[in-house]
Design goal:
This protein has ten helices and ten strands. With 236 residues, the protein is of the alpha/beta class. The strands form two sheets. It has a six-stranded mixed beta sheet with strand order 6-7-8-3-9-10, with helices on both faces. The chain has a four-stranded antiparallel beta sheet with strand order 2-1-4-5, with helices on one face. The longest helix is centred in the C-terminal third of the chain and has 16 residues. The protein binds adenosine-5'-triphosphate (ATP) and magnesium ion.
Length: 236
């Protein structure tokens, strides 16, 4: 579904991605793990063309996204919940969801809101509350819900568990699994390697802008190097 081939991305002179190859098949949950500054968020943003890849190709269902303007990428069925959530703080929960549906024709808006509220009953209870006053976990739910309003076939999630208590992290990961079971392919960037690898069909490890390892979630979880670098003490 998504093939990233030899992608290099720069911020000015700094080369953040140094030739990344990665593939996501339809129906999968694929996770990308790696330390702070490895280039994980840069890769997700490069899929959306902000920043643009300087070299390489990003093929989505055979079409090269590096030639497609960002606003059209959403229409192709890709949505993202960015790092730090970036919900609209002064808008209500409901208005945030409306923003997520802007690129659709609106004909299924009511059903789509229903689907989001069924996944996140908490958002329905808080539909008139302003985004900025939601708790961290609720904001994360809203960021994912807003992304779902564009009815994506591929959902990109950047660190959905960041800063959340263990119980809420588990809820969010359960919901990601449900979203995937409903037919949405998921690309999940995570610091929380334990939960991410347990959930994912396959995973990749990024170090300094390159992919250094890949395998099934279980293979990576069982790998001693991965355990030492990303899991020791990290999953208690
Ligand atoms: N807008 C920017 N301008 C310049 N350099 C940037 C910019 N954004 C990111 N970088 C640099 O690119 C590298 C990769 O950053 P990126 O945010 O992709 O890492 P990450 O793997 O998502 O890290 P984290 O886990 O901390 O979110 C870092 O060295 C970072 O400082
Ligand atoms: Mg990041």
């Amino acid at each position: 579904m998504l093939k990233i081939q030899g992608v290099h991305t720069f911020y000015g002179q700094i080369e953040a991605l140094k030739g990344v190859d990665l593939e996501i098949k339809q129906g999968e949950i694929v996770t990308l793990i790696g330390a702070n500054g490895a280039g994980k968020s840069t890769l997700l943003m490069t899929v959306f063309g902000k920043p643009k890849a300087r070299h390489g190709r990003i093929l989505y269902e055979g079409r090269d996204l590096t030639r497609v303007p960002t606003h059209e990428i959403v229409r192709l069925g890709i949505a993202q919940s960015p790092e730090g959530r970036r919900i609209f703080a002064r808008m209500t929960v409901f208005e945030n969801l409306q923003m997520g549906a802007l690129c659709t024709d609106g004909s299924t808006f009511d059903e789509d809101v229903r689907m989001v509220f069924d996944l996140f009953p908490r958002l329905e209870e808080r539909r008139t509350q302003r985004g900025g006053t939601l708790s961290g976990g609720e904001q994360q739910m809203l960021a994912i819900g807003r992304a779902l309003m564009s009815k994506p076939r591929l959902l990109l999630l950047d660190e959905p568990s960041l800063g959340l208590a263990p119980l809420v992290v588990r809820q969010i990961f359960d919901i990601i699994k449900k979203i995937n079971q409903a037919g949405v392919t998921v690309f999940l960037v995570e610091q929380n390697a334990f939960h991410a690898l347990k959930l994912a069909h396959r995973g990749y490890v990024m170090v300094n802008g390159v992919i250094t390892m890949s395998g099934t979630g279980k293979e990576l979880l069982d790998n001693p190097e991965i355990r030492a670098a990303y899991l020791e003490g990290g999953h208690a």
